[in-house]
Design goal:
16 strands, Creatine Amidinohydrolase, Creatine Amidinohydrolase, Chain A, domain 1, 395 residues, alpha/beta, 2 domains, 6-stranded mixed β-sheet, globular, homodimer, 33% helix
């Protein structure tokens, strides 16, 4: 069930160990499910219990640690041999006395690494404070340092196979957005529109299937468009109501996000103007993208564009994306925002999502793009405009 | 957009403060999205950035803390007044210098709580090690103690409105499982079956819509049925292949999970027998359920039943469920397993999922149930058997 060649996984481990060497790290404990997948292939919905991948700088295979009943998932989805699959007993689960990180401590002691410099992902999803305290307690002679985003920064430049998966995801995102546009209408329930989006996301294309995106479709409507992370309700769409649709296609855990705004019936002049401002700013920012440009320079083009149009906006306008698991499809590395001096390189992939929120109404029109040798390539091909749905269904 | 009365939220806060008093806690910092929702109503897909709800023992309203662009989501979904909604600036997001917990420290100092006993959810999702270290650093004079599961234990007994939502979710789970049974067939892709399940989950019923379950449909097939947390692929079903379907209905963030096993074509004798053993054990365990019985006594009935049938199994057979967010619909309190002496009370809700895994094949047939005054009530009404799909589609 490997989705990459063993050589590609091994190359990723080699890059990880090189970075560990630079940082003076002997052992890296990974709990971010995306990083676990990136190095080992591991892919199951088991991140609701503690699990880890442990990289020793002087060994070629990482160790998978997880719940006993997930060991077969590791056997099915990783390139690791049996000696590197270490399941813990079920009485470690949500126990008041035992913690899975105690089991990790035991593994490190068994391999005589308890005096080493050990990096952990201090601010990664699923690496709780208790994980940290248990490691500190169980390994009093270790030097524990921060390895947050160490693997994420390796993930930022994609291989050709990764780009292929992301492009496949982009086709799914187009299909899912089209379903949204086709079904949103006066009197239709929000939940029925999202059901259709989800069907398209998971079924995918005739040639290949879809995977679950790391974020469910977001669908704020009316005044709630100024609250962009709201999900749906079972209320029906009203005439004149704007709706933001943010979704992603996903294939083999790789994402291509896409956001658009639609309106049922005729938009107000204000909404139409807002759509034009966002599209203009989006494209002026996109047009700056090429290798050698920094993330903050891309954001500055957006900022100049909207300032010219009399709009202010504080939050970042984009982030690196690709492989991920819930709750996020962002990679937590480069952001398109002031102060981020990450230099763009070919095969970096970003979701540029420059929302404008006036407090009582919001607008999102986004693009996912790949940095090419000379500029950028849009991943999805979908009209960049406020989508007007004038043919309102007769009530 | 409140899904409960303000009085119900206030009662929950009162119960939380009573428990804080027993534990000697002055301030409780909550990051578990389910606990945040339970006390405030807050409901948005924003838990991919740091956010918190802060309860002061001597104040009636908790404080919501989150990203600036999510403040409107707090205004739309909570019962909190404007003074209790505290958004942080966007430059706290995934920053190397600022952390949202610094902002929490500032709030506590502003309210002169920096010398108090402060409980945090040390082992909750999204309370990372970095969150803890930033609080320790920012509040050197505070006494920081463990409040993991403090609110979860209040959630374990449901109100009548909560039970109503869970029953609505159970109807959705029946509908979604029926879609799975109707569509699984030789030559059909796994992803197309899951797409249909997801449509049913989100669309819900004619009278009310569905919400996103905290876990996507799990659908291991063939030998992979011994790896119960695998998701789907785009491969097609083969004749003779077993498939496990684990899913939940969800309404207003309340879940009713359901698992079944099906087989395309005629099952082997072994698979048929395994189905009978699981159904017998499931019902013998269910028949012990009533107020006053402990969780471990319920599991013992299952254990006796399968031992009689010559099967051994180590992991727990169930857990408390209800309100939740990804990545789990379990509540992390009571488990049906040896050593858990939690006493059953009316309006507790559990998912009993006694899987058997032979290493090369697995079987799951589950029930969600409510503890009643005298016994139990099954939440979904769905045939308890290995589902045989003999009418194989002609290839």
């Amino acid at each position: 069930m490997l989705t990459f060649s063993i050589e590609e996984y091994q190359e990723r481990v080699t890059q990880t160990k090189q970075r560990m060497a630079v940082e003076g790290v002997d052992v890296l404990i990974i709990t971010d499910p995306a990083n676990m997948n990136y190095l080992s292939g591991y892919n199951a919905w088991s991140f609701y219990v503690h699990q880890a991948l442990v990289v020793f700088i002087d060994e070629s295979q990482p160790y998978w640690i997880g719940r006993g009943l997930d060991a077969n998932a590791a056997r099915h989805t990783t390139w690791l041999d049996e000696e590197h699959i270490h399941p813990y007993a079920d009485n470690y689960i949500q126990s008041m006395v035992r913690h899975p990180m105690d089991f990790v401590c035991d593994l490190l002691k068994e391999h005589k690494r308890e005096h080493k410099t050990i990096a952990v992902e201090l601010d990664a999803y699923y690496f709780t404070a208790q994980c940290y305290l248990r490691l500190m307690n169980g390994l009093p002679n270790a030097t524990i340092v921060d390895g947050t985003n160490l693997v994420n920064w390796i993930r930022i430049v994609k291989s050709d196979t990764e780009i292929d998966y992301i492009k496949k995801a982009a086709k799914i995102s187009e299909k899912a957005m089209q379903v949204a546009f086709d079904t949103i209408n006066k009197g239709v329930r929000e939940c029925d529109v999202v059901a259709g989006i989800s069907y398209a996301q998971i079924s995918g294309m005739e040639e290949y299937g879809g995977d679950y995106p790391s974020i469910v479709p977001l669908l704020p409507t009316g005044k709630k468009t100024s609250a962009c992370h709201l999900t749906w309700t079972d209320e029906t769409f009203n005439e004149g109501s704007p709706v933001i649709i943010e979704l992603a296609g996903c294939h083999n855990r790789y994402h291509s996000p896409l956001a658009r705004t639609a309106v049922v019936g005729q938009p107000t002049q204000e909404l139409t103007k807002l759509g034009e401002v966002v599209v203009e700013g989006l494209n002026e920012a996109l047009d700056t993208v090429k290798p050698g440009v920094t993330c903050e320079e891309v954001e500055a083009a957006w900022h100049d564009s909207i300032t010219k149009n009399g709009v202010e906006k504080e939050s970042r306008i984009g982030y690196s994306t690709g492989l991920n698991y819930p709750p996020d499809w962002g990679e937590h590395t480069a952001s398109l925002r002031p102060g981020d001096r990450t230099v763009l390189e070919p095969n970096m992939v970003f979701h540029m999502i420059p929302t404008i929120d006036l407090g009582y109404i919001g607008m999102e029109i986004s693009e996912s793009f790949r940095v090419t040798e000379t500029g950028y390539e849009k991943l999805a091909d979908f009209p960049q405009e406020l989508h007007v749905k004038p043919n309102i269904r007769l009530a």
